[in-house]
Each structure stands twice: as structure tokens, then as C-alpha cells.
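Forwarding the complex inputs:
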Amino acid sequence: KAGVTQTPRYLIKTRGQQVTLSCSPISGHRSVSWYQQTPGQGLQFLFEYFSETQRNKGNFPGRFSGRQFSNSRSEMNVSTLELGDSALYLCASSFGSRFPDREENFGPGTRLTVT
Amino acid sequence: GNSVTQMEGPVTLSEEAFLTINCTYTATGYPSLFWYVQYPGEGLQLLLKATKADDKGSNKGFEATYRKETTSFHLEKGSVQVSDSAVYFCALSDQKGSSNTGKLIFGQGTTLQVKP
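Prediction (whole assembly, two chains):
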């Protein structure tokens, strides 16, 4: 079975621009979550989607948004990029809906650099 | 709120040494507990998990026991290899009230370096 795929793998943007990152979950998985990883803040939860509905959102400004499509693929968007948005963005998919029946399978991440 | 605390790294060991990485947590309810591993340039891989008190998760020689009385989930391995060099993250499933949120809360990560 193919794992979680994320595109692009690397991205360089300029302050003020916007960016869209894409995530394709493992086939059959309906839950997708996004995390931001930085050296200073570690791994922080962005949002979670299940069957096209956002169920949870982390403490990030409104510039961070996302959506999930009917085929479970997900995108996240960051508008008006700031230098502090430079990070590794990780997507995870899960077959189960809730813990303890849920197990996150992470993709390789998209490395975003904002200059 | 819920949180996870891991021992500071880096941890440097010789091959075949015994490994312990400490992890303690603060949580309401009954979270699931996880250990993830991240190799350079890659995403996170689930190493093991435990979903209730006294459960032992194990995989690839690593193991951890869910200790509710000490709120701990320490990672151990009897004999490490150079290929175990990576960053290890302890995590718990977040809960609000009686329902879980589908969100993981991670510790800061512990870098393990194993020398030949």
C-alpha cells in the first residue's frame, strides 16, 4: 500500500506570498491531520479533517487554512507568509476516526522556506 | 492542558548499549500514548503505542509500558545499533472532556546518536 504523499517536498517563497501544500492520504483513510514542525516550537497541531469536515483546529492565526476533498485528499494554505512560517509541514492520515482506534501515518513532509 | 515532557538530548551511546529515553505526561482522562521516530530528512514513523494503563507496546526491540501511577511511558531498548540513530518523540492523544480530539500532543523530541 502506498504511504502518505505530500507535494511539493520543498518550497521557497517570499514574505507576503501565499502557498498551498497538498497531501494524499493512504487509500481508504478518511482522516487527515496537519502538523507544523520547527526547531523552536517542535511539533504543533494545525488541523484535522474527517470526511471533508474540519473537526479540530490548533492555535494558529487565520492565515492558516485547509480543506479536504471528497477523495480524502487535503490541502493547506498559508496566506501572507511570514519568516516564522518557515517549517516542515507534516500531513498524517488515519483509518480510525477516534483514539484509541486511530493511528497516525505521517508523510515525508513539505519543507517550506520563507525569505 | 495536556502535555508531554521528554528528557533532554542528545543521548550518545555506544553500539549494543542499553537505551532509556524518559517520557512523562500530564493528561486528563485516559489518553493513548505513542513513540514516533524521525530519521534525517524524513517524516515521523510510528514505533509503538499503548492505549491503556499497564499496556506494553513493543516493536523492533523497543518497548515502553503505560504507567498511569507515575504518568510515564519510558522508551527502552536492550541493545542499540548505529541504525537506531534518530530523533524520538513521545506523544499522547489529546482529550477535551470525555471525548478525544484526534490531535496528538508531542514532546520536544530526543536525539539519539549511536556510535560504532
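Chain A has no helices and eleven strands.
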